[in-house]
Amino acid sequence: MSADLPIVVLARHGETAWSKSGQHTGLTDLPLTERGEALAKRLGDRIRGMKFDRVFTSPLKRARDTCKLAGFADVAEILPDLVEWNYGKYEGRRTADIQAERPGWELFRDGVPDGESPDQISARADRVIQVVRSVDGNVLLFSSGHILRVFGARWLGMPASFGNYLLLGTASVSVVGYDHSLSEPAIRLWNDTDFLEGK
């Protein structure tokens, strides 16, 4: 793994009321909780000192506020394709409640009624990857859990359904990049949250 190859740091937003309660939060523009704001500041401490050639954020408030509290608002650019999965009729609902009505349902495989399909969010993640790969250097992304999980899957060339296995906690830091060359995409770090508890 070459230290000269660029990296992409994925920063999930801090806690919101619905991320705490386990409700699917797509386009509902919730603010961070007080704890979420504190976690966002710790996230900033975790990545401070790293050099980024471009910083992009989702247009949603929870991502923009995390970006600001982490110390990157002055250089961040809004990237609309980083917006969270559109959950359609499942917005605000918990997975267990959905599965009680629809046994075996999996977001990353089945999508949602009146929302985005896995193919649609995969296409958005691919567009983000195109933007990232056009940058000559390191990139930092602030966004939400499910779109970042699909981004991770697509970075590896896997289908969106692979995102089901890439868990992300609030205010987590993950890093993708390459192994020996730009033709070998790889995950270098995933779902780092130890720093949030002072470890």
Structural commentary:
There is one protein chain. This protein is an alpha/beta fold and 199 residues long. The protein contains 7 helices and 6 strands. It has helices at residues 17-21, 34-47, 61-70, 95-101, 107-110, 118-133, 145-155; strands spanning 8-12, 54-57, 76-78, 139-143, 173-178, 185-192. A 6-stranded mixed beta sheet has the order 3-2-4-1-5-6, sandwiched between helices. β5 (173-178) and β6 (185-192) form a beta hairpin. α2 crosses α3 and α6 (118-133) crosses α7 (145-155). The longest helix is centred in the middle third of the chain and has 16 residues, at 118-133. It is globular, with a radius of gyration of 16 Å. It starts with 7 loop residues before the first strand and ends in a 7-residue tail after the last strand. The mean pLDDT is 95.
What would the keywords be for this entry?
alpha/beta; Rossmann fold; six-stranded mixed β-sheet; 7 helices
User: Main beta sheet, described?
Assistant: 6 strands, mixed
Helix content: 25-40%
- The average pLDDT score comes to 95
Number of domains: 1
* Apparent shape: globular
Q: What is the tally of beta strands?
A: 6
Query: Which secondary-structure class do the elements indicate?
Result: alpha/beta
- Record the strand order, biggest sheet: 3-2-4-1-5-6
The CATH architecture comes to 3-Layer(aba) Sandwich
Order of helices and strands: EHHEHEHHHEHEE
Tell me the CATH superfamily. Phosphoglycerate mutase-like
Give the helix tally: 7
Low-confidence stretches: none
Quaternary structure state of the chains depicted: single chain
Strand content: 15-25%
Radius of gyration: 16 Å
User: What CATH first level would be assigned?
Assistant: Alpha Beta
Distance between the termini: 26 Å
Question: Might you state the CATH topology name?
Answer: Rossmann fold
